UniProtKB/TrEMBL annotation, chains A, B:
<protein>
    <submittedName>
        <fullName>NDP-hexose 2,3-dehydratase family protein</fullName>
    </submittedName>
</protein>
<feature type="region of interest" description="Disordered">
    <location>
        <begin position="1"/>
        <end position="22"/>
    </location>
</feature>
<feature type="domain" description="dTDP-4-dehydro-6-deoxy-alpha-D-glucopyranose 2,3-dehydratase">
    <location>
        <begin position="261"/>
        <end position="464"/>
    </location>
</feature>
<dbReference type="InterPro" id="IPR038153">
    <property type="entry name" value="EvaA-like_sf"/>
</dbReference>
<feature type="domain" description="dTDP-4-dehydro-6-deoxy-alpha-D-glucopyranose 2,3-dehydratase">
    <location>
        <begin position="45"/>
        <end position="247"/>
    </location>
</feature>
<dbReference type="InterPro" id="IPR005212">
    <property type="entry name" value="EvaA-like"/>
</dbReference>
<dbReference type="Pfam" id="PF03559">
    <property type="entry name" value="Hexose_dehydrat"/>
</dbReference>
Length: 471, 471
């Protein structure tokens, strides 16, 4: 079947339908395909393949004292940690005041500042009529197992415009040059608002025009295969998960507890009733945090640390480097409570304030916490729904896997991701303020736009999307 | 015909259709109604009625020296201008660095900071099966003719939560209390990014449940009547225009030059290629601006001034007040170039950077400039398309009216708003970088969400919307 790029060059039409109904169906077909098409090289056992790539490169990551970071220094006056080139990112301080109907919250914390917008892009291509996703076995120093399945491209703008030295980014031309492919999704999405200051990346899915060379460390996989891999721990990296959440899957039902207008109105009220003022301050001035030889950390040992690592690859020309990473002190738990109303599955979204969000509030999972911060307290003082998630009986757990966050910035940042079935006694149809029932189809509509769905909820949306289309 | 609120109280359904197809059609029906329905009090000649209200209240606005502003002072260290209560707004400084592929731009300017989100709300109600809009004759001191047609409600959060003294906001309960009405549109929209620091207001349209008392200074008008009034100078105020732009009118065609996916991708690239850093600085430190007895103004007399006014009403218990306003030095010109491709009307949108935008870039009109800043230069150095708009032959002008911006903050901030038909020689199908052809239907989809369409483009969208449905 020739792709559109192989067709004779007729004058393009000046107008076309605004919506392409076939795209959603094509993704659904890929989700139903549990094996790659015949023209694609036999798919390896992906986790085993990732392990082989890790051993082949002989990657080694070691913790080092902050003073041993090469070309990274704490600025004398501000104490901000940055690279001498001014590139990459800085670790600075943030002062946050959040006001809502319930009161006034104020805190200070270290935060990563990286104003550049990067590209997280997956190249797709039809083989035998089924879309396949070009995925990469990529090492990131913060990943617990170093090598995970990544998007085709994961690059900062300096990276791919070659503003600083470094090898060319493979396949980048499909995402930057018109005519090399057809865009199926392209949206700026926020990253972790508790660790990044207003960071967003461009999440892209591009369908290749013409043949695509298959390079080492890359494989074509169907969405059905990716869905299966999302059930395994630490296989699909965060960047891949967020891009997968942007797939425009069909909403076969078209019904929901709230109409789209009512959902947007609820969200508007949530955003309007929170006034968040977040101001960058010098890292040296962040109260309650201290700088030691190995870490910038909280005085009570809570939340996270900024640490240093050195990265080496044993077997080839890759130059090693050192860099800071944020390391959470304890693992997290991230969960949507789910219910089915009149045959339509819903998840319970939480309008969350995170200090680093550009626009104050985004929709997060029902539960997104570090349990260790609460388990010493009586359960009545835990955040809403956390106890139910931690004590859910196995038969209520519809999905569970451990995933880690972006390994280029976060060290061993693992969370247990869950979908937990609830009932009226736990999670009523009329939920508490700040929570609302939404369908996966509604979340899929919202992620066409930025500023709506946070990165943890997008990981769960990727899992939901694969599950609901594969049924 | 009973409204839904009059129906017997059955248990509400747990799910409903995500989209309500009838809402768009109901607004279209109102646009086609050029007279109010019989049950509504005879519509006055609106401009004459506005004039009568102005004379009845005997409003008087006078310029005063900045030193005569009561309870407003310049802070000793920063020079910021603020109210002693800490309420209302402040005039501060802004330092902006904008970087794109074309280079590096840096400037400083005064800016209005008002972190609170207000409500701009229009109450609608069906009479004889036609939606009518409850509009207010409202005085704002900066309006050239003082009294214009405003939304039902125009209130800051402090206003309507009664955080500070002041009369209750009329009809506010329809916008803040569930059950008093049904939300038809509700979205946070940006205001002027060149004059406000990250200001947004909630734009709401609510359909009233049950009878609505008609208070003095309010009238029910059809969308068709409002469309006619939008063709008159200085009748429909900015707040009303932006709310009217959020009406979910039907897209009867469903085709466009770019698919929605391609349009969002183009916009994402525009936002990604601009890095804008906007930092608040003390007003006293803004370079190139000076403070005199009557104004904070640019040293070369360009752009705008911050001035003081006193406001008095002669005939009743309204207490007078004084306040600062921003006054543009020269009138503006705001225009969309329009073309029809294959029978589908399009406008040429411009991805604009304004220093006060929360997210760097929004879609603006093709032209949004103060001509006086350029007319001393040779035409080749004018901004793109400005010359064509200023010299367009009368037969190419499809719409023209003078409108003023928010009269509570801006004094005599008039612009000539135009829709100007263009052709391939002036505005090619493949426009210059930063410009793109979009349909009014696509803009209507985008204004369901914030951060996409700037306030000047929304005024033109309101005009377009009324024109296209009334055809």
């Amino acid at each position: 079947m020739p792709s559109h790029a192989d067709a004779p060059q007729a004058a393009p039409p000046t107008v076309r339908p605004r919506a392409d109904a076939t795209t959603a169906e094509r993704f659904a077909r890929s989700a139903a395909a549990l094996e790659p098409a015949a023209p694609v090289a036999a798919a390896p056992d992906v986790p085993a393949w990732l392990g082989r790539r890790r051993r082949a490169h002989d990657f080694r990551v070691e913790r080092i004292p902050l003073a041993d970071l090469e070309d990274w220094t704490f600025a004398p006056t501000t104490g901000n940690l940055g690279h001498h080139s001014g590139k990459f990112f800085t670790v600075e301080g943030l002062d946050v005041t959040a006001v809502d109907d319930g009161g006034h919250h104020h805190w200070q914390q270290p935060i990563i500042r990286q104003p550049e917008v990067g590209i997280l892009g997956i190249l797709v291509k039809e083989f035998d009529g089924v879309l396949h996703f070009l995925m990469q076995a990529k090492m990131e120093p913060g990943n617990p197992n170093l090598v995970q399945l990544s998007p085709t491209v994961q690059a900062t703008r300096s990276n791919y415009t070659r503003a600083h030295r470094g090898a060319a980014v493979k396949y980048i031309e499909y995402f930057t040059r018109p005519g090399r492919g057809r865009v199926l999704a392209d949206v700026l999405q926020s990253e972790h608002g508790s660790w990044f200051f207003r960071k967003s990346n461009r999440n892209m899915i591009v369908e290749a025009a013409g043949d695509v060379p298959l390079l080492e460390d890359f494989r074509w996989l169907t969405l059905g295969q990716l869905a299966a891999l999302l059930h395994q721990d630490n296989v699909v990296n965060m960047d891949a998960r967020t891009v997968l959440s942007c797939i425009p899957l069909p909403d076969t039902d078209g019904r929901a507890h709230l109409s789209d207008t009512d959902l947007l109105s609820w969200f508007t009220e949530e955003r309007a009733r929170h006034t968040v003022s977040a101001t960058r301050i010098p890292l040296a001035n962040v109260s309650g945090w201290k700088r030691g030889p190995y870490a910038v950390e909280h005085e009570d040992g809570r939340y996270f640390k900024a640490v240093g690592v050195s990265v080496r690859a044993g077997n080839r020309e890759v130059t090693g480097w050192t860099q800071p990473l944020f390391e959470p002190v304890e693992p997290g738990v991230v969960a949507f409570l789910t219910r089915t109303f009149d045959g339509v599955p819903h998840v319970l979204a939480h309008a969350r304030v995170e200090g680093g969000f550009l626009d104050a509030v985004e929709l997060g999972p029902t539960v997104q916490y570090t349990p260790a911060n609460y388990t010493h307290l009586p359960a009545r003082r835990w955040p809403p729904f956390l106890q139910h998630v931690l004590t859910a009986p196995p038969e209520a757990v519809r999905y569970e896997a451990v995933h880690s966050e972006e390994g280029g910035r976060f060290l061993n940042a693992e969370s247990r991701y869950l979908l937990v079935e609830a009932d009226e006694s736990v999670a009523p149809l009329t939920p508490p303020p700040g929570y609302q029932w939404v369908t996966p189809g509604q979340l899929t509509s919202l992620v066409r736009h930025g500023h709506y769905v946070n990165v943890q909820a997008r990981t769960l949306l990727a899992c939901l999307g694969a599950m609901r289309t594969a049924r």
